[in-house]
Design a protein that fits this description.
Strand content of chain A: 15-25%
Helix content of chain B: 25-40%
Radius of gyration of chain A: 23 Å
Strand content of chain B: 25-35%
Structural class of chain B: alpha+beta
Strand order of the largest sheet of chain B: 1-2-4-3
Largest sheet of chain A: 5 strands, mixed
Structural class of chain A: alpha+beta
Number of strands of chain A: 13
CATH topology of the largest domain in chain A: Sulfite Reductase Hemoprotein, domain 1
Shape of chain B: globular
CATH superfamily of the largest domain in chain A: Sulfite Reductase Hemoprotein, domain 1
Order of helices and strands of chain A: HEEHEEHEHEEHEEHEEEHHHE
CATH architecture of chain B: 2-Layer Sandwich
CATH architecture of the largest domain in chain A: 2-Layer Sandwich
Low-confidence stretches of chain A: none
Largest interface: A-B, 12 and 13 residues
Helix content of chain A: 25-40%
Order of helices and strands of chain B: EHEHEE
Mean pLDDT of chain B: 93
Number of helices of chain B: 2
Number of domains of chain B: 1
CATH class of chain B: Alpha Beta
Shape of chain A: globular
Oligomer: heterodimer
CATH class of the largest domain in chain A: Alpha Beta
CATH superfamily of chain B: TusA-like domain
Distance between the termini of chain B: 19 Å
Number of domains of chain A: 3
Strand order of the largest sheet of chain A: 5-6-7-10-12
Distance between the termini of chain A: 59 Å
Number of strands of chain B: 4
Low-confidence stretches of chain B: none
CATH topology of chain B: Translation Initiation Factor IF3
């Protein structure tokens, strides 16, 4: 029978984490590729180009969250696309109410501003939490290597910003004044003895003083992530707020899992709702207490709810 | 010979690249002065030169610009 001859078979297991997104019109899909931290080995890039040429349209799209998206893929080719990409070890990404592929800046290996290894963090989170269903809504994570915060941590459900705590060893200081001049935040002033005076309340922990100091008089005494929680963008933007400081890099996965557990518990029965909106309903103390029980050294004493951005449309 | 390189009025990263080119022309161990504008140049150039391995010695302000003194390290 004609109906049998044209029967399409597709391995539905490949679709479990999403990543296949329907396009306009019949049969065509966008295939979103998994590129944690935006790092794309050149060998994989070549393989992707081959697969795109064979199965896709005339171009690929670079997504806002560092993915390469194959365009105009016929759904009948799903299995072949997955298989051919798999040979180059390129996996398909996620979409929907799941933990998404983390984004990250270049990190600290070649970028002179990077304070922490954001690439390693992104890989770890991708390996441990990728595609986990939240039961409610999407869940986005971003890693910035320094307070420049190019990846925009505060518009993610959990956003991490690399930070170091500086400390001055006065006896090694030659009074050149480079640190005070380099400090963007005005956290270093030169005192009467022409030595730097550190004003911790103004410090954003960028490490510029440590980096410029000619004699190594400024030292790093703590290193880790500043953590913002509850952000999102889209129709009703929220800016995530401060929950933790100097979170050790090796605790990132555990920390996100802890936030996820609180989110899933508090969002029970509320349907499709983002973490930030749950924090606004529950109050910040509930989440702070929950996190403090596991990360007592890093959680801030108090914080503010996610900050509502008035986008001036649809508010009446 | 006085090694003073005037980088005033030159933006990042051109000022840093000019500094690198100038440093190619002097011997290791020589002391070099760079004149830098306030703002981004005085914040970025010293750090970048330190990162290249040179030894920063002092920074002085004169009439709204800065003089960075360093020792060239090979």
């Amino acid at each position: 029978m004609a109906a049998d001859k044209n029967k399409t078979t597709i391995n539905l297991g490949n679709l479990k984490a999403g990543g296949f997104i329907k396009e306009r019109g019949k049969d065509l899909f966008t295939v979103r590729l998994r590129v944690p931290g935006g790092r794309m080995p050149v060998s994989r890039l070549k393989k992707i180009a081959e697969v795109a040429e064979k199965f896709g349209g005339e171009f690929v799209h670079l997504s806002v969250r560092q993915s390469i998206e194959l365009i105009n893929i016929n759904f009948k080719d799903f299995d072949a696309v997955v298989m051919e990409l798999g040979e180059g070890e390129q996996k398909v990404a996620s979409c929907g109410a799941r933990v998404r592929v983390p984004v990250a800046c270049g990190g600290c290996e070649y970028n002179p501003n990077g304070l922490v290894d954001t690439q390693r963090s992104a890989m770890e989170v991708d390996r441990e939490l990728f595609g986990a269903e939240t039961g409610h809504h999407k869940f986005k994570v971003a890693f910035s290597g320094c307070p420049f915060d190019c990846p925009k941590a505060a518009i993610n459900d959990v956003g991490f910003i690399g930070a170091i705590q500086p400390e001055l060893h006065r006896e090694e200081c030659i009074s050149c004044g480079l640190c005070a001049k380099s400090c963007t935040d005005g956290a270093i002033a030169m005192d009467q003895e022409n030595k730097p005076l550190y004003l911790p309340d103004k410090c954003t922990y960028c490490g510029d003083c440590v980096k410029v100091c000619p004699t190594g008089a400024w030292k790093t005494v703590k290193k880790g992530y500043t953590v913002r929680i509850g952000g999102k963008w889209g129709r009703r933007p929220l800016i995530g707020t401060l929950y933790a400081t100097f979170l050790p890099e090796e605790k990132v996965v555990e920390f996100i899992a802890c936030v996820l557990a609180w989110y899933q518990d508090k969002a029970e029965g509320l349907g499709r709702i983002r973490l930030g909106d749950i924090i606004i309903r529950e109050g910040t103390d509930s989440l702070l207490d929950h996190l403090r029980s596991k990360f007592p050294d890093n959680i801030v004493e108090k914080t503010i709810p996610p900050q509502v951005v008035d986008n001036q449309i649809g508010n009446n | 010979m006085s090694n003073t390189i005037d980088l005033r009025g030159i933006c990042c990263p051109t000022n840093f690249v000019k500094a690198k080119l100038a440093l190619e022309m002097v011997d290791a161990g020589a002391t070099v002065e760079f004149l830098l504008d306030d703002g981004e140049p005085v914040k970025n150039v010293p750090r970048a030169l330190k990162d290249e391995g040179h030894k920063l010695i002092s920074l002085k302000e004169t009439d709204g610009f800065y003089t960075l003194t360093l020792e060239k390290i090979d």
